[in-house]
Design a protein that fits this description.
It is a single chain. The chain is mainly alpha-helical and about 325 residues long. About 70% of the residues lie in helices and about 0% in strands. Helix 10 packs parallel to helix 16 and helix 15 runs antiparallel to helix 19. It starts with a helix and ends in a 6-residue tail after the last helix. The N terminus is likely disordered.
């Protein structure tokens, strides 16, 4: 009997209902190998992601290590009020938002453009060389990247100053900090970011390109009508995920490139949390600031997800 006939007779839905109607214990016994594999990431997630959330309460307490969590005095929203009344609060929030937003505006579209260009290369060896050259910076550590930036921007013998014929110390210029940060982020991660888009384009049916060529479509028309629609769902998904970390400016790079003279643009929340929590041992205060940052990230994630779900069929949460 054909599948269509079985469906008409109601046999397949009945089988599906029978599977769904099995008790949980029976399903676990029948597929215990899969549940055993699932147990490992579930346990790791609980141990490293959810159990530490118990410590969030110190944001609402005057935490003393000698007294423990429950023994420390409950102060409610005191630390949050103290943060919002700090003289550099507005500057930190502004710098964090602007640095993250500008980084997203540049680093999000460039991998898509690179993947579209690389996908048009027809010489296999040259294509692999281009991909390798673009991927390589991703594997350089942040410490080395910042060292290279300092060497290139050195006022005495730096490559940039040699090209410009000047002797400017760019890292002491607050107006140049965002450009330095974003340019280095694009150079380091753009090639790596286009991998997922190239994988998506690799799954496009070659028959679509052949049909487009027969119809006389140019390269740009094929990109606009075939490649971009294929990349759109993945691009929206990546945008939603990036929006969820919009306030998480890369701490290491900002910390390593920050100077007393560029703090007007480099003073961000992540560095402030490190300074207050690790250097000054203000655990409750730094936890409150970090919790505020996380709440903003969650709100941005939900907002962008809602907008994206209305604009397309892609939804993350």
């Amino acid at each position: 009997m054909k599948a269509s006939e079985q469906s008409k007779n109601g046999q397949l839905p009945a089988m599906g209902q029978a599977v769904r109607g099995k008790p949980l214990g029976r399903r676990i016994r029948d597929n215990w190998q899969l549940y055993a594999l699932l147990l490992i990431p579930v346990v790791l997630t609980l141990v490293y992601k959810y159990i530490p959330m118990y410590g969030i309460q110190i944001a609402f307490r005057d935490f003393k290590a000698s007294r423990g969590y429950l023994g420390s005095e409950w102060v409610g929203l005191y630390w949050f009020k103290r943060f919002f009344s700090a003289p550099n609060c507005v500057r930190m929030i502004k710098n964090t938002v602007l640095l993250s937003l500008y980084t997203l505006l540049w680093t999000f579209p460039i991998p898509i453009i690179l993947s579209l260009i690389i996908n048009q290369l027809r010489f296999g060896k040259f294509k692999r060389v281009v991909q390798t050259v673009l991927y390589a910076p991703h594997f350089i550590s942040i410490m080395v990247i910042c060292g290279m930036i300092r060497i290139f921007l050195s006022p005495s013998g730096g490559l940039i100053n040699l090209l410009l014929g000047s002797s400017i110390d760019f890292l002491t210029e607050a107006s140049a900090f965002r450009t330095i940060y974003i340019a280095s982020a694009v150079w380091q991660d753009a090639g790596w970011g286009c991998i997922i888009y190239l994988a998506t384009l690799a799954n496009v049916d070659p028959g679509l390109y052949e049909a487009a060529k027969v119809d006389g479509a140019s390269v740009f028309q094929r990109i606009r009508n075939i490649d971009i629609p294929e990349l759109l769902p993945m691009a929206i998904l990546n945008l939603i995920m990036a929006a969820g970390g919009l306030m998480n400016v890369g701490f290491e790079k900002v910390w390593l490139l920050q100077t007393d003279l560029n703090k007007a643009a480099s003073d961000v929340i992540a560095v402030y949390v490190y300074q207050q929590g690790i250097e000054s041992a203000k655990y409750s205060y730094s936890t409150a600031v970090g919790l505020f940052n996380t709440i903003v990230n969650i709100a941005l994630l939900l907002i962008v997800n809602k907008i994206a779900s209305k604009a397309s069929d892609v939804e993350f949460v």
